[in-house]
Amino acid sequence: MIKEKWQTPLFIALFMFGLLISTQYSTQQALVNSLSNQDQEDLVTLVKSLNEKRTKLELEVDTLIKNKQSLDEKATLGSDLVANLQAELRQLKIINGTVPVHGPGVVITITGDSNLMYLDLIDLVNELWVSGAEAVAINDHRIENNTTIYHAEDANHRLVITINGKPLLSPVVIKAIGNPDTLEKGLTFTGGIIDSLNTLYQVFPVVKKQEDVVIPAASSKIVFKHIKS
Amino acid sequence: MWFPIVGLIIGILLGSIFTVPVPIVYAKYLSIAVLAALDSLMGGVRGILEDSFDGTILLSGFFTNTLLAALLAYLGDHLGVDLYLAAVLAFGIRLFSNLGFIRRDVINRFRAKRRLKKEGKKFD
User: Fold this and answer.
1) Measured between alpha carbons, how far is A133 from A136 in angstroms, rounded to an integer?
2) What is the ipTM of this complex?
3) Cβ contacts of A22 on chain B, cutoff 8 Å
4) What per-residue confidence (pLDDT) applies to A141?
């Protein structure tokens, strides 16, 4: 039959033709999509839009860089804040007497045989504060905002000076940190506290400047219950 | 009857699955090859309809026309002669004349069938 004769060659030819046209189709698509085949006007608009896009992206890069810079600044600001807070904490610790401190200052020694009263001690401490002392201790009792200086009778019915309720033993050694010269001047000027102690009460404190005075931490911690800020 | 068309579909599918990247420079020659192949196919279909079909002639014509068309277009480009246009013209004219013959043959066959049917009815 004729049918049998023509089918195989036609099959081969059509098969090859199919391959050819699909290849040609994809090639043609690539050709149409290639830049060299575009209209000049299209290309111009393409370049324009790409340029616009690029400037937009450049702006975006700029803003992002600025953002990064501001964030970096904020970060460094944050670390500065932490450093500031730590410094403040250290200062507060020093003020509250929770840490031992040392520095230049004066040491006042009062021997045991003098008739020292607690009021004289208070005056001395006050005078030290006024003269610019930054930390004061009496016989290693750190003077804080709640330190009491008073007197009490001991077992032998003798008056003893107490600090925070504890009897003060002789000799009394007052340590103060501050400018040694200023502190000494503040105590020893004519008509000053030491002068009056000498002349009125026959108490003879010995003031000595020192390069390094060590003042211990306060023995008790202050616990605030009612105070608010 | 459908067997060759299945071949065409398989060919298209295979060609689109295994896409061979042809350099854009050769797209022109490939297009003229497609035109030559189409011309050969139309010649083959016309041969079937006119009962003068020869498979060897079809296949040899198919491959040689395709290759030669592409080669001639390529050569023309390199010699500065637009043989490409000549091939498009020649194959295009032959393609359309073949199409015209195919149309005529199909109509004739259809008419002949109808006449045979009518005569058959009359003889019944």
Assistant:
1) 7
2) 0.79
3) 11-16, 19
4) 86
